[in-house]
Write a structure and sequence with these properties.
about 210 residues; mainly alpha; about 75% helix
């Protein structure tokens, strides 16, 4: 298919713009907090929340598929000519040029799979339950939506005492701060933070004496 230089240039320019958009939204999604924490704390990246980033990233991906198809259609014969010419001059370079992108794609897929697996693990924490000898049990809903004040009220303990105990463990908190915000701010594991809070509340209620 013969195409004008204007068409080729326009397709290349659009591909560049879409590529930048995909790269930026991809970085945002990579930096986004795992699971539903992003939604709970109102996290945004360049003014977009995690759902918006996902939608934009997906739509741009479909646009890129179409543009790549057009790019291949208008330049397919030229590509074949260049590959044949390169293959005659240096087969090693051509083979290396095919292998290296393939390896990069494979590595990228593995990295994405690992990240997606981590997301799934954090989602499962919301429904995780375990038996405990203490009468204090903090649910996943509490961890996502309760403030420090609300948690203290739920178990009838002093908010100031709870904050002081958290401070002893290196965690600065305010009464109106959500537990999920503290978790994200200090990079805490959801289950470990929950266990810490249960232990502190049990201690404040005198159950560990």
């Amino acid at each position: 298919m013969r195409a004008s230089a204007l068409l080729r240039g326009a397709v290349d320019l659009l591909l560049l713009i879409v590529f930048v958009g995909i790269a930026v939204t991809g970085i945002g999604l990579y930096l986004a907090p795992s699971g539903r924490i992003a939604e709970s704390i109102g996290w945004t990246f360049l003014g977009m929340n995690k759902e918006a980033l996902t939608n934009v990233h997906t739509y741009l991906g479909f646009i890129m598929i179409g543009l790549v198809g057009v790019h291949l259609a208008v330049g397919f014969k030229s590509m074949l000519v260049m590959l044949k010419s390169a293959f005659r001059s240096s087969r090693t370079k051509v083979i290396a040029g095919l292998i290296i992108p393939t390896l990069l794609i494979a590595v990228g897929f593995q990295a994405f799979s690992a990240y997606a697996g981590e997301e799934e693990t954090h989602e499962r924490y919301d429904y995780y339950e375990e038996s405990t000898n203490s009468s204090v049990y903090i649910t996943g809903v509490m961890m996502k939506y309760y403030t420090v004040q609300e948690l203290a009220n739920e178990f009838n303990v002093s908010t100031d005492a709870l904050i002081e105990k958290l401070k002893e463990k290196g965690i600065e908190a305010t009464p109106d701060e959500k537990l999920v915000e503290i978790e994200y701010k200090y990079g805490l594991d959801r289950e470990e933070f929950k266990a810490m809070l249960e232990e502190i509340i049990s201690e404040l209620r005198g159950e560990n004496e």
